[in-house]
Amino acid sequence: MGDVTDIRERRAPARLKRRASCGRSEHRTVSLFWRIFSLNAAALVVAAALLLGPVTVSTPVRQGEAVVVLGGLALLLVANAFVLRVGLVPLQRLGHAMAAADLLRPGARAPVSGPSETAALITTYNTMLDRLEAERATGAAHALSAQERERHRIARELHDEVGQTLTAVLLQLKRVADRAPAELREDVGQAQEATRAGLDEIRRIARRLRPGVLEELGLPSALRSLAAEFTTHGLTVRHHVGGELPRLSEESELVVYRVAQEGLTNTARHSAADRAEVRLQPVAGGVELLVRDNGKGLGGAPEGAGIQGMRERALLVGAAFSVQDAPGRGTDVRLRVPVPAEEGR
After folding, report:
1. Residue 51 vs residue 284, higher pLDDT
2. Which of 14, 77, 195, 218 shows the greatest Cβ crowding within 10 Å of its Cβ?
């Protein structure tokens, strides 16, 4: 993950500078002030020319003269309204873009248009959004990297400390059971079973915190193991891993694994599904992960911390992430990870 962070940190300033310079060079337009000033000045010049020219206004004002004056006034108002409308439309678009901005869905920018002041404001906003997205991506990379280190530390302590302690307790209970009188052996046996169940749960938690199978056997085997782990009473998880997958970086493999893990966790906890599927297959330019269930679907519920965490992980490797209702019923979680041409060989 550190590599991803460094790449983003190096590329972000250059991208921001290029986009800012493009915005300044491509949108040199007349300012809104000079547009309105020129229009009003033209109207005043015409009025002065009429005043100093041979045209006169009778007293009382004749009907034709009144029509000409009112028509000129109406034309001036319409022209002013048109100029203001054209000048303020880009600001309205900017307001809509600001209201819809979401750092977890990067890339959307307000179109740069309108007078020079408005164009400069929109360009500044887009540059600020670039900077915020880059800073969020860098911060998320640091946070997730620290989270993975903490997961490894806790998993190691659970395995080495708590696991070894429970193993010693099991051995001690076995010796006690061998020496215990007949009327106590059933109680000691129940204590053994409870301790063994606790030891199995500790090992299961440690495996989820630190997917050793991912490091040792690779992503396809890790996904098969994950599907088997979530196949419990009431939930059947099928898996399909397509052949000839392009080679992924360690960061990309970890992102795919964590998204699949979180997707299956949401399925087991919230979807009320009895069937789920984990599918990893090659696509044009990368690989695609699909986690699908036949549960109750999204139902318009807001995104929780789990889905937002998956989005942040996807951003670290430049992947496209989506959550939507599955065909028929259920939920589809899709992650498409790009693979550079030289990396996929």
Report:
1. 284
2. 195
